[in-house]
Design brief:
Layout: H1 2-22, E1 23-26, E2 30-36, E3 39-40, E4 49-52, E5 58-64, E6 68-78, E7 84-95, H2 98-103, H3 108-126, H4 129-134, H5 136-155, E8 157-168, H6 171-211, H7 215-230, H8 243-253, H9 284-295
Antiparallel strand pairs: 1-4, 2-3, 2-5, 6-7, 7-8
Helix pairs in contact: 3-5
Length: 325
């Protein structure tokens, strides 16, 4: 009797062990793959919830179907324009075929990390520094396409997104870029200042043209400037006298140009006492002879005679002076 009870108890314990071993719980984010005698049962992929397997015969392995975010270690590379950079990224992937992810690859997480590192270096070598800094979306899409092509079909893993986190540049390159940005901003500032001065000069030229039409407007503008400067009360003001005021003082003082100069009287010749005092009038022939003598060239002085002692030719109608007796 005692042996029968012991046997029934042992049998019940074995049944309870098999019952517990055959019942499995699959989480909502997981899927179970059943291996029967080491062979995958393609039609026996278990979904979330309670599931049963045959103990000792079947073995179930759970696969996480969630999206995994995995960081890619920083990679040192040289860009297409020969700039040394250090780039790190993050990869987002999830399993779409649990059988391929378990059977075709031993450790899919480590394998994706290695593929991401090599692909990142390849992309760095094909791009230049400006693209890495300003066109990250393009680099991300290209990198995701390269990794996804190598993992989706053979491994059953889909790359959802790849993002470059940081691009580290050498200190010398950072200083060069800072100087370039500073020079660019300085250029823009000078262009804006020059444009403002050009527009202001146009306005000032138009204002000067309008003020030149009336001299009184220039005086009003001068007084307005004096008023603006005097409001500060922190400088000495030297005000020039207007030109109109100087002209007014000049007229009051009787200076040159204010009163017209008096005409000088013309001296009359002395009156003649008799008709004998009238000088004789030369005839027409004598006048013609004098004009011909004046037009004739002066004869060269004789050899040995000084130039200052040469004699002028006698003129008709004019008597040479007589030596004193």
């Amino acid at each position: 009797m005692e042996a029968a009870i012991l046997l029934l108890g042992l049998l019940g314990f074995v049944l309870l062990f098999f019952l517990v071993a055959s019942i499995k719980v699959v989480q909502q984010f997981e899927q179970g793959i059943v291996f029967r005698f080491g062979q995958v049962q393609l039609t026996a992929v278990r979904g979330p919830g309670l599931t049963a397997i045959v103990p000792i015969v079947d073995r179930m392995q759970k696969v996480n179907m969630q999206t995994v975010a995995m960081g890619v270690p920083a990679q040192d590379g040289i860009t297409q324009d020969n700039v040394s950079v250090r780039v790190d990224a993050v990869v987002y992937f999830r399993i779409i075929d649990p059988v391929k992810a378990i059977v075709n690859i031993q450790n899919y997480g480590w394998a994706i990390s290695q593929v991401a590192q090599t692909s990142l270096r390849s992309v760095i070598g094909k791009a230049d520094m400006q693209q890495l800094l300003s066109e990250r979306e393009t680099i991300n899409r290209e990198l995701a396409g390269i990794i996804d092509e190598m993992t989706e079909n053979p491994w059953g893993i889909r790359i959802e997104r790849v993002e470059i986190k940081d691009v580290s540049l050498p200190e010398g390159m950072k200083r060069s870029m800072a100087r370039q940005a500073e020079a660019e901003r300085e250029r823009r500032a000078r262009i804006i200042t020059a444009d403002g001065e050009y527009q202001a000069s146009k306005r000032l030229a138009a204002a000067a043209h309008e003020l030149s039409k009336d001299p009184a407007s220039l005086q009003l503008r001068l007084l307005q400037t004096v008023t603006e400067v005097a409001a500060e009360k922190n400088s000495t003001l030297v005000m020039p006298l207007p030109v109109e005021m100087l002209r007014f003082f000049d007229k009051m003082a009787g200076g040159p140009g204010s009163v017209p100069a008096e005409e000088q009287p013309i001296e009359e010749p002395p009156p003649l006492e008799s008709a004998d005092d009238v000088p004789p009038v030369a005839s027409n022939d004598e006048i013609a002879a004098v004009e011909a003598a004046q037009d004739a060239p002066i004869a060269a002085p004789a050899r040995g005679e000084p130039e200052g002692l040469r004699k002028a030719p006698p003129q008709p109608g004019i008597q040479p002076p007589q030596p004193p007796r």
